[in-house]
Amino acid sequence: MTKIKFRNNDEMPAFGLGTWKSEEGKVYNAIKTAIKIGYRHIDCAHIYGNEKEVGQALSDCFSEMDISRKDLWITSKLWNNSHAYKDVFPALKQTLKDLQLEYLDLYLIHWPVTLKRDVTFPTSAEDFLSLDEVPLAKTWEAMEEAVYAGLTKHIGVSNFGIKKLEDLISKSEITPEINQVELHPYLQQEDLVSFCKSNSIKLTAYAPLGSADRPDALKSQNEPTLLDNPTITEIAKSKNATPAQILISWGLHKGFAVIPKSTNPDRIKQNYDAQYITLTKDDMEEISKLDKEFRYVDGSIWIYKNGHFSSLEELWA
Ligand code: A2P
Predict the structure, then answer these.
(1) Residue 36 exposure: Cα atoms within 13 Å on the Cβ side
(2) Which is catalytic among the residues 28, 39, 48, 206?
(3) Atom 11 in ligand 1: residue holding the nearest Cα
(4) Are strands 11-13 and 3-5 parallel, antiparallel or unpaired?
(5) Helix, strand or coil for residue 51?
(6) Separation of alpha carbons 266 and 40, rounded Å
(7) Spatial CB neighbours of 159, under 8 Å, sequence gap ≥ 6
(8) Closest-CA residue to 246 (of 211, 214, 212, 270)
(9) Each residue's pLDDT expressed in tens, for the chain with a length of 317 residues
């Protein structure tokens, strides 16, 4: 199993299980199946609405299987309405309570977007707090304190572009260790990837399979389907693998952590086995030609005139 090494030599398994959109009633079995197969990295978030069930599954795995807390890597994320300095610890403690854990391995600021405390998703510009009122650097200060308090071993961000990372790095004691962003052959983000590399920020690839089970409200018309891409399907055929396995393998070969979501036992196993596929230099070169700068999670739900960001360019900068 490939590992991603952190600055203090802690190691995160590069392959993990995503839990965004994993429904309550299904995620319990998904976690247990995954851990039984050999998954050691689970990616969670408060906003996924399923951390209690994930926590129950983890707790049952600890009591039923020969596995202990230190064998697993658990990530979670701070939601946008808890960015105020005083709200970060309570949010993290709620996540720990739901997950039935004493510490996280990694806690991320989910989005560089700050909502009022009582808002979950915005419906108008008034739902945002200004970044002057609640600067990301102040949220980050509370994240750093969570490390010092032993509530999480590592901290990072998600959905941050280069400008926002530069700004945060210049104001932080602990440089973010991870940036979790959408990454797949249609969105290769070479500039961001090389910026992160040169600042020793590791990357986790979300939506590695194209996230087809997103709610319709988050989809655009005529989206390209990654799993049907002819280059991907051809490479898959030549290796007796599935297109999903090639997409996962591509991310791992790029040095990313990759967290495909599945609640289906066969696909959970199939995705796990993708770790053992080797892509050649030619395969990687063919796949590198597929970049379309296409985002499945385009972030338009955060764009409001007079809100935080009035354009997608500003959001992703
Ligand atoms: P399911 O949970 O029923 O397996 P992403 O990780 O990019 O968000 O993609 C998740 C979507 O991809 C879900 O719809 C998930 O469905 C599906 N999926 C997961 N693994 C595979 C696979 N090996 N082959 C095809 N689809 C998959």
Answers:
(1) 14
(2) 48
(3) 211
(4) antiparallel
(5) helix
(6) 18
(7) 110, 111, 112, 180, 181, 299
(8) 270
(9) 899 999 999 999 999 999 999 999 999 999 999 999 999 999 999 999 999 999 999 999 999 999 999 999 999 999 999 999 999 999 999 999 999 999 999 999 999 999 999 999 999 999 999 888 899 999 999 999 999 999 999 999 999 999 999 999 999 999 999 999 999 999 999 999 999 999 999 999 999 999 999 988 888 888 999 999 999 999 999 999 999 999 999 999 999 999 999 999 999 999 999 999 999 999 999 999 999 999 999 999 999 988 789 899 999 99
Beta strands 73-78 and 104-109: pairing type?
A: parallel
Task: Answer for the pair 4, 11: CB distance below 8 angstroms, yes or no.
Answer: yes
* For the chain, the helix, strand and coil percentages under 3-state DSSP, each to the nearest 5: 45, 15, 40
**48 is known as an active-site residue:** yes
* Lookup: tokens for 289: 């030609």
Q: Evaluate whether 55 touches 32 at the Cβ level (below 8 Å).
A: no
Cβ atoms of 99 and 54 closer than 8 Å? yes
Which residue's CA is the closest to the ligand 1 atom numbered 14? 213
| 206, 219, 258, 261, best to mutate for ligand 1 pocket (most atoms within 8 Å of CB) | 261
